[in-house]
Design goal:
Length: 257
Amino acid sequence: MGRFDGRVAVITGAARGIGLGVATRFAEEGASVAVVDLDESAAAESAAALPVAAGSSAKHTGIGADVGNGASVEAAIDRVVAELGGIHILMNNAGITRDNLLFKMTEDDWDLVMNVHLKGSFLMSKAAQKHFVAQKYGKIVNVSSTSALGNRGQANYSAAKMGLQGFTRTLGIELGPFGINVNAIAPGFIATEMTDATAARVGMSVEDFRKAAAEHNPVRRVGYPEDIAAAAAFLASDEASYITGQTLYVDGGVTLG
């Protein structure tokens, strides 16, 4: 028996990177997974490649949605319920960066980041909680970041990621009485296409960029999507039913010093 047999998990921004790593872990543990992404073809391709646990009746689907648009979000959740038979877990992972120093940051840079991270998590959570409250069960996992503690050139991203921590605590208070747990994960440096793109932008090789990141934390390695997936699998499971409103830093200890 898998930990998520009979459960339906929705993961935003899951066509690649951290989201795909989490989707794979949930699928391996028996969940039916909805891969939600702005690019529906990429979502469908990633969903088709997800494993199905031995003996499981789980199935997966890829859904295109703009998490910052209410109508798009409602349609996506309706599709999940229609195609997969319900919804039990939501992971708000979709995210973008528009890094710049404050004096160079545009209103669009600010608004786009807030729209995806904060408004997107709000809209997805609001749409999902209707089902969670009705069934008196649900798990929400939000993706924050170590950048929530402040990071040069990321005023927009840092503000959004710290905002998600406050959002998580508040939903923990509001939704706890209805059997819904809400927690967040704050990743440190995770080796993904997004961080590889950052290496290119600052003129470093991926290898050197990752090596520099590893040297800044106590465990002396970078993180991988599988590290976040392991934490997400715990927080979305019934083993974590007495944990809510918390943010778990998965960062190799970089925030310790």
